[in-house]
Amino acid sequence: MITFDNVSKVFDGEHIAVDELSGTVEEGQLVVLIGPSGCGKTTTLQMVNRLVEPTSGTIYVNERDHSTFDPVKLRRTMGYVIQEIGLFPHMTVGQNITIVPDLEGWDSELKSERAHDLIDMVGMDPDIYLDRYPRELSGGQQQRIGVLRALAVDPDILLMDEPFGALDPLTRDQLQDELTDLQDRVKKTILFVTHDMDEALKMGDAIMMMQQGKLLQFATPDEMLQDPNNEFIAEFIGAERMILSPLEVPVKDVMRGSVPEVEENATLDACLRAMQDAESDYASVVDGRGKLVGMLNADRLQKLVDDRGRNLAVGEAPLNHTSIQQRDNLMEAVHRLVEEDCDVIAVVDRGKRPVGTFSRASLPQILADKIWPRDAAATHNDNEQSEVEDSQ
Ligand SMILES: Nc1ncnc2c1ncn2[C@@H]1O[C@H](COP(=O)(O)OP(=O)(O)OP(=O)(O)O)[C@@H](O)[C@H]1O
Ligand SMILES: [Mg+2]
Q1: Which domains does the chain carry?
Q2: Residue 370, pLDDT score
Q3: pTM
Q4: Where would you tag: which of 35, 113, 328, 333 has the fewest CB atoms within 10 A of its CB?
């Protein structure tokens, strides 16, 4: 958690770069800091890891006044990723990733294991890439390594200053997706600087909008789209984004939470109990690595138990294999439901791990919420129960 309490930075006794900033980045949140060039984003970020000292005000890191930390130690507990990557050209990719573990005195076996695990997480083959030099990688690959390096000692906090700013739009989009997936798994507290509104809306749990050192609005992407604080923000967002069609929203914004997960070699009986414990009508069946194999509903499960006995492995059961990526939009999710003629589909991340479910029964409420946000929000809770009942 990072808290800014009335923080200002004045350079050279007169130039106000950051002006009485207050706000909290909650644990596990990705907060985007956005605003035009020179508005104080980098200065704000660098005050957190004390590359720049505030002129007044206090920053708390995990509720401790951060001026009481040793700056060097503080910096090592925070990952820092910048646009220009800053990989060392004479070091291999593996050595670059483990710079901080090296400073911390890890032994070589542990370092190489860490480098392996990290590079594997972004789908790059350790055997091919760990011994390469940065110049032998594409820009996108180098930037991935920059992110992994920041994660090497598993810091709670990640500071990212336009980390994807120098990449072409396609690669940038891909790295944004990868970071989102990574964040779903590692749940870091991230302060992320950009001046690209699309990136902010896509990545942010919340957005801090700055102008000339001042914080103008601190809100969720939805709130900011629906209710920008002033003209400047509305203009920055752009009219076309403010009327995002409800069918274009990503499934992850409208899905329901996960259903219980059961490993494929568990018995039908164990599956039944997991569903009863969670009071869920569905279970996700996953393999040993947590990837979705398929979904099973209570009726079908009961029938299987009757026909084939309680000890059958769930992996052997006929499952509903339909799933959709959390970033796919509502339109695609609806298509999938219709195509596959099912009531519920699993929502997965890029690693195919289940993150939620999307059901036919929830559709009317989702559309109502998107089209009439305020009124619908008031009645949403009342409707939730009957909707759950409908889907049974
Ligand atoms: N070391 C410094 N000395 C004097 N002024 C500085 C210093 N660093 C930054 N500034 C000034 O503080 C203001 C904020 O700079 P900052 O780098 O935080 O902006 P930014 O929002 O990150 O901009 P950009 O989007 O261009 O990266 C600018 O007007 C800048 O000129
Ligand atoms: Mg900057």
Answers
A1: 2-244 (3.40.50.300), 253-365 (3.10.580.10)
A2: 65
A3: 0.69
A4: 113
